[in-house]
Design a protein that fits this description.
Layout lengths: L1 E3 L2 E4 L2 E4 L14 E2 L16 E2 L8
Parallel strand pairs: 4-5
Antiparallel strand pairs: 1-2, 2-3
Amino acid sequence: MTSVQGGCLCGDVRVTAHGALDDPNQFTPTYQLWTKRREHWLPEMDNLISYDEDRTGD
């Protein structure tokens, strides 16, 4: 894991702090993790690949 300003790089996963991007449309998510712990008030994103927990070797 490499720390960078506003987040970290973890393999092919990029973690950023909310509001860290000047152009919020620059990156489009392709999957979501830990969906089994989704807060009830967060909307489901049916167009993304979902993993109940961590992503396992693809």
